[in-house]
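step 4 of 6: structure.
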Amino acid sequence: MENEGTVWLPPANSTIAEDVDGLFYWILDTSIIIFAIVILLMAVFTWRYRRRGKDTLTPAKDHNNFLEALWTIIPTGLIMVAFFWGFSGYMKMRVMPLEGTEIKVTGQKWFWSYQYEEGANLTNDFAVPVNKPVTLTMSSADVIHSFYVPNFRIKMDVLPNRYTKVWFEPTHEGVFDVFCTEYCGQAHSEMVGKVHVLSEENYAAWIDSVSRFGEDLPPAELGEILYVKKACVTCHSLDGSIVQGPSFLGAWERDIQLTDGTTAIMDENYLRESIINPRAKIHVGYQPVMPTYQGQLKDYELDGLIAFIKQVKQQTGQ
Amino acid sequence: MADSASHSHSMSHVAHHFADSEQQAESSKMGMWIFLLTEVLFFGGLFCAYVIFRAWKPDMFYEAHKTLSMSMGATNTVVLIVSSVTMALAIRAMQLGDKIKTLAYLWSTMALAGVFLVIKYFEYAHKFHVGQLPGQFYTYTGVEGTNPHVFFSVYFAMTGLHGIHVIAGMIAIGWLIWRTQKNHFNANYYTPIEMTGLYWHLVDLIWIFLFPLFYLIH
Amino acid sequence: MSMVMPKMNYLAEPKGLWSWIVTYDHKRIGLLYLAAITLFFAIAGFLAILIRTELLYPGQDIMDANTYNQVFTLHGAIMIFLFIIPSIPAALGNFVLPLMIGAKDVAFPKLNLASWYIYVFGSIFAIYSILASAVDTGWTFYTPYSTTTGTAVISMTLGAFILGFSSIFTGINFIVTVHKMRAPGMTWYKLPLMIWALYATALIQVMATPVLAITLLLLVLERWLGVGIFDPALGGDPVLYQHFFWFYSHPAVYIMILPALGIISELIATFSHKKIFGYKFIAYSSLAIAFTSFLVWAHHMFTSGQSELAAMIFSFITFFVGVPTGIKIFNWLLTMYKAQIDLRTPMVYALSFIFLFTIGGLTGIFLGALSVDIHLHDTYFIVAHFHYVMMGGTVIAFLGGLHFWWPKMFGKLYNETAGRIGAAIIFVGFNMTFLPQFVLGSQGMPRRYWTYVDAYQPLHAFSSYGSFILGLGFILVFVYLMHSLIWGRQAPKNIWGSLTMEWETTSPPHPHNFEEDKVLQHGPYDYDKVLIDRDEALTDYGYDTTTGEPGEHRESVAKE
């Protein structure tokens, strides 16, 4: 099925999108008609009844029951249609399906992570099967975020200390943007993920591989992949430029100044602590904004990341 | 600036833009009532917060309220009610043009407000001492339930704001005493006393709501 | 014959800078407000240009993400709290309200002056927070972000808290003034519609602002003491903050737009030279909108996880704000039917308002519809929608009102041609800036984004170029208005032939407004019964009264 999207709306790629789009276009068309009438009348009157000479008295007529009834009743009827249509569409979004894939989503500054029942834990990019309902149970580790997939027409706030749910059933295979739409600070606009909609077979193969991902890779290679997948890249550069956090370039075994006045060496233990409990030691000159990765990285993944950071140092030595 | 010489009336307390004393008094009264409405809504936000948190954690609220001293709260309620009476009597005295009595009643109102604050001070001092403080300063351990500091946050926010209103009222009463002393008021013109009286009754009324909400939880 | 400035006028008497600093005159206080809001409009407008420049291309153009977050926060906070809310009520309203009802001043002149000083005091906090470490929370200060960020949230919030009192004082003053100070004969149904609108606005100011005040106070306590009312980490509820905040801030939207609707009613009636259509409806709809505005706050929170029942109720009531607003537009159109339309600068703004505000209103229907709102919430569609209402509505009406009352305020005429060109540039620039943003939003572009995916770039660029044109339009308006203060011609009493009472006094007015005690002679819109003979005055200024082409010949008349 072809689905191109229009000037107004992106392609509709979920089961509820069609209903939302139908209402959107109905309101749009009605609005354009009303707007055209208003502007046309305004233009005609302005021209037709322009002042042509001395001030004169003008007609006293200041009410017309028929017209007034008309322009009260018609708009009321129209908005009632919009209300009921909108409410019925909303209820479809809010009634969670009883079956299908369930994924636990965590929003934190500034990335998304996804915990699958199969055990896989992913960051920013995740995958779902096509034509199957998917329920997301979401919470935030810090401030309020909001989970938005324009192509699915769904959006839900992600709150700290509380769970919210949202569901969708993708109708097309493909890769779609995930945005954070509740302002959450510095890298709010980079809190962007992707949802990959896969065919049923591909999804089964994918979830199998991803659940066991990395066990057989060399640690540094795994670390390099995790560096991107776990969104370290958002705040830590490899070329020495300063983003939100210190660059990894030449970081290994360097002495660093901490905000409490002491110094530390960037070694295995320091890195491990900084990933698991980032607020414990703060590098001078940086804000304590890094979220914890506790529970999101397995031990061998941590080893991989540390091995990778070590390697960034080696590259600079060349 | 506002010279009243060009106007027909001679009463000095009528500002230039009013037609007469009656229009001025009615305007003041209406303005004051609207101001009191804003005060009610101001506290209304806090009452809302109270209702929400109490509905959310009824047990914790019940447990936490036991730490408040009911006798001190009750005494303060009586003190404020009596002060409202003396305030009303002050207005009555000036309506009859009795400056001495007016002064006496105003001073008693002032004194009762002082008593209220002293009692409040002892309550606060005790809570500071044992660590029943709002939010992150809360160190007390004697209350069961989750997040008991929220109870004290709401308690201090509401009684604190009320206390500030009592102090503002005392300043206003002090100003009335000074003006009465200077013979600014007479049986025909006592609007400021009346307005302050309205304000004082509101402060009293808010306490009458606060007292059962915090001290008498069942 | 040449007109001269009346000797006894409020600008000239009393003299000296000190007399302005301690003035109780509502007209002077109105001008003090006007000066202050112009300054803040310039600052916040400049910030808007910075935002649009940064968004020309994805990634960093002129500032980093942190700076961008601070800039859009300050743009919003300054525009809302320091410009739009006081713009029409406190600046124009203060000037015209007593004049329009034939009063010598507002009921409480000292309170009026106090409200200006409180405004200045509050704005100092806001400026301090810009200089200290600009706030980066968005103007909504949502918790827990606002309780955890490292920027100067406390001073900005205290600033907004203090500004609230300024707004409350103005509100109290207006309500009492309208109730108690009307000239004899001016019954409620003889009030100009601007007064009805200001009255409804004042009611909202008085009833909603205290709730914002307590909310902001609690936010300050939350940050300062960690009281745990809004912060979830301490057992609080961040959604409660949103409820409190929008309980004020939604009615605040009507504090901004209702007086604008009042101005437009005046402009349409005066420049159509015709009795306003549906007077009572327009009057009562102001009150109805004010009342309803208190019952729709949670439509800002359809995605916040509130219950479905709440969402349904709030969506339903939201739609019902649409009906009276729509009817007002039809009433204005019918006023123009069989009228005598004089297309002066203020009327150009009024027509521009109808165009822009209709778009703003209709796009509100999209957002009231629950399922569509889920898609559009917090995208550029919202940004475009509220700019069409706040700027296309309120700011355009404010400019219309300013041009309408300018001759009365300063006794000077601005250049009519420049006025129309300015209005046209602003109209074009505005649409170029914000029309593309509807499409950006419905395509999924979230708001408050420092960078964006490449597909959105062309529309962003178009919008940015539009904003530059818009900026030029405002500069032009500022320049010719300032020019008129010095070189403008002296204005007659009633340049527009209007029937409302402020035109019965000299331009600029007497320090006590009118030289005599006013009694109502005719209704504000009795254009079917009363004809003001302004021909003499007009000829004197070079207007051709027979061809009906006002202003065309002005420049050819030799200067005295």
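step 5 of 6: annotate
 - Residues 93 and 167 of chain A are 7 Å apart (CA to CA).
 - The longest helix of chain A spans residues 17-48.
step 6 of 6: archive
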